[in-house]
């Protein structure tokens, strides 16, 4: 595992936590779901994970996350879809 | 075909995916030249710019800027000299005018960039203490905004705008609106 990649995500999450004190309410959900995507990408880059269904969920996050600024309903629908997808993954986890 | 000012204004998008192509320093200087012709309250001109092209520093900025997406080849820290603003215009200059000025300078910069086919994104979601430390800013220099600059990898769709008629009042405020 590349320590620099991990440090980037730690930094992102910590500064997001600080930012959420003052930032718009919906940026909290954005930063959390973005963290899921970032963690997956770091794990994938380091060869620690490869899962087509999770990959599809991360693609969904990346495609839809910017809706937070223009279409809140679509953004929340994406969050619901990711949660639903994760339930399916949990059912079949090793 | 000549672009009108309105064409440029309407074509500008907040770009969050960039090509790796570098942007040369002469082009960046043109953007900054546009920035310094923004209106400035009491002519304080308290703006200061830090242009970051170094990859390692850009990566550090990225790590502490949750609002920055993609890997822009250039980041411009739009800063204000709060001491200069105070010296020239007192607390109003330091606490308000400097902020308005850097916002207007930022708009000039992003419009000039759009006119040149460059993408930009104005960002406030970053840690001011972290950016100050990374850029070695003195305590009287405030990093107000970051602007990512680069050639767009994707052209975002235009978000809807509230129509002028819905938000404009002539002469007096009309409660019906």
Strand content of chain B: 15-25%
CATH fold-level name of chain B: NADH Oxidase
Would you tell me the overall average pLDDT of chain B?
Answer: 95
Q: Give the SSE string of chain A.
A: HHHH
Low-confidence stretches of chain B: none
Topology readout:
The complex is a heterodimer of chains A (94) and B (177).
Chain A: H1 3-19, H2 27-45, H3 52-64, H4 72-91
Chain B: H1 5-11, H2 25-35, E1 47-52, H3 55-63, E2 74-81, H4 82-115, E3 119-123, H5 128-134, E4 141-150, H6 164-167
Antiparallel strand pairs in B: 1-2, 2-4, 3-4
Describe the structure.
- The complex is a heterodimer of chains A (94) and B (177).
- By secondary structure, chain A is mainly alpha-helical.
- Chain A has one domain.
- Chain A contains four helices and no strands.
- In chain A, helix 1 (3-19) packs antiparallel against helix 2 (27-45) and helix 2 (27-45) crosses helix 3 (52-64).
- Chain B has one domain (11-154): NADH Oxidase (3-Layer(aba) Sandwich).
- In chain B, helix 2 packs across helix 4 (82-115).
- Chain B is globular and about 55 Å long.
- Classes of the chains: A mainly alpha (94), B alpha+beta (177).
- At the A-B interface, helix 1 and helix 2 of A face helix 3 of B.
């Amino acid at each position: 595992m590349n320590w620099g990649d991990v440090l980037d995500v730690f930094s992102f999450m910590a500064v997001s936590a600080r930012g959420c004190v003052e930032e718009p309410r919906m940026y909290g959900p954005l930063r959390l779901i973005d963290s899921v995507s970032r963690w997956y990408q770091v794990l994938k880059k380091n060869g620690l994970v490869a899962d087509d269904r999770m990959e599809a969920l991360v693609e969904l996050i990346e495609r839809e996350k910017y809706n937070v600024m223009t279409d809140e309903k679509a953004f929340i629908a994406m969050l619901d879809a990711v949660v639903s997808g994760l339930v399916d993954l949990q059912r079949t986890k090793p | 075909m000549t672009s009108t000012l309105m064409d440029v204004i309407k074509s500008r998008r907040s770009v969050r995916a960039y090509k790796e192509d570098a942007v040369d320093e002469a082009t960046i200087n043109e953007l900054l030249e546009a920035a310094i012709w923004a209106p400035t309250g009491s002519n304080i001109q308290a703006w200061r710019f830090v242009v970051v092209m170094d990859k390692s520093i850009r990566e550090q900025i990225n790590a502490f800027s949750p609002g920055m997406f993609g890997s822009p080849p250039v980041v411009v820290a739009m800063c204000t000299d709060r001491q200069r603003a105070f010296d020239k215009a007192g607390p109003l200059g330091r606490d308000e005018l400097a902020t308005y000025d850097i916002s207007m300078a930022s708009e000039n910069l992003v419009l000039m960039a759009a006119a040149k086919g460059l993408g930009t994104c104005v960002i406030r979601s970053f840690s001011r203490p972290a950016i100050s430390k990374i850029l070695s800013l003195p305590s009287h220099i405030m990093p107000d905004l970051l602007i990512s600059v680069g050639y767009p990898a994707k052209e975002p769709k235009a978000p809807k705008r509230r129509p002028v008629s819905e938000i404009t009042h002539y002469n007096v405020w009309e409660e019906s609106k």
